[in-house]
User: Fold this.
Amino acid sequence: MNYENTHHWLNYIDGEWVDGERRLNVANPASNETFATVALANADDAERALASAVRCVESGALTSPRPAERVRLLLRIAAEIREVSERGAQILCRENGKTLRDARDEFIEAARYFEYYAGMADKLEGVSVPLGDDYVDFTRYEPMGVSVQIVPWNFPVSICARSLAPALAAGNAVVVKSPELSPLGLCVLFQAIDAVGLPKGAAQLLCGLGSEVGAHLASSSKTNQIVFTGSVPTGRTILAAAAQWATPSVMELGGKSAAVVFPDSDRAQVLASVKSGIFFNAGQVCSAMSRLIVHRSIHDEVVDSVCNLARKLSIGPGSQDPDHTPLISATQIERVLAMCDEAIAEGATAVTGGARVADRPGHFMQPTVLADVHPRMKIAYEEVFGPVLSVIPFDTEDEAVEIANGTPYGLVAGVFTRDVNRALRFSRRLRAGQVFVNEWYAGGIETPFGGVGLSGFGREKGQEAIYSYVRTKNVGIRVAQD
Ligand code: NAD
Assistant:
């Protein structure tokens, strides 16, 4: 297949690129123009992929050789991803609306996940359990088997690699379900995987509707694990399906994360963090800084500087690497605008933004800062998934903690202060899987990530994540004494 100028993309099942009876259009969010199609997998394709994954597991193709073989496979995948990263970034930027710079970063991060977990593939060591002279007892880590991984559209390539790399490192066979709104970057990622020549069924890609292919994969008795990254409502549907076979699941869901800003904070750090925290990827980030909880004594000053920042952001298609890019779809921008309108009707003030960018095709929303937000307004506790920052004042530390923790979510949180004791106090009191001090997104692929409450459960990233992809088996041996 000549991948350059490809307008129609395929699914990857049982080691082959496979077409479908139906096609899905892929549009550029910056212009709203359809520029490619992808074969739409159906429930039969899902069943064939599951059967192939089961054959791979039962053959022991990934688990019988020494783990050093998997180390080499993962390193080769990483090298192939680096090879395709420029071409992949161009396609990801076009289908997703994100900047070319961020699309490149996604592919490089994907390669890093494979390098990182390659380093763990041959270090999954069990323990010896002392039971006296009459027994030898030990544990060993075994792969889950068939790992179904359902991916969202906001960072499809890096989120896919975040689960696929540790799953393969641990010896699982993986079926990936790509997102309808941004499937092509994953086709490029799988071209890199295809080039390595994994055992058939070890890694497969299906682009299908969530309600059809996703639902089929989640409810199948052949599925031994579900790794879902996406919204809370879909997570609930998948958990209900998983209950049927008691299928273990990792749930990486939404967030409504808050940064608490104290008067002794470094304002340059606060502003840089606001820029990346809420305006990166047009705010379509699960761990976005969607609330800024500011001490009342500096509230007006901080609102002024944050609004100045928002107004100065350059806006354009991702191909021009601006500061601010379009939202993914018409539905998404309508949803975000409706949430802003509702907040304004309830008494919030759009100090800047709150509307579409005029005179542009595509789904461009103005970078928005809302003040006069009350913690009981929907905008203060529901995920927006757009470039909208809600600012809420506080007077005391206890009040700041209460507001920050006052949503059903708990993905990440942040605190900005020069007082190390206060920073440590807040790191304990904030209800979140990860706490950033003086820099939003402090961390990397090496740091464990995941939520509490409606943000989900299970951990991805870091050494800890590989244990999401194995089960512990205990082996006890009675020893004869004569
Ligand atoms: P979504 O829930 O609409 O879709 C996610 C995936 O689920 C898609 O591939 C979709 O096709 C599939 N799906 C839909 N219905 C399904 C069903 N019934 N059964 C099985 N699969 C089904 O989410 P989205 O709009 O793609 O992504 C945005 C959401 O993802 C936000 O809430 C965001 O916070 C969350 N997210 C979380 C993380 C994290 O790591 N915690 C990372 C990125 C995004």
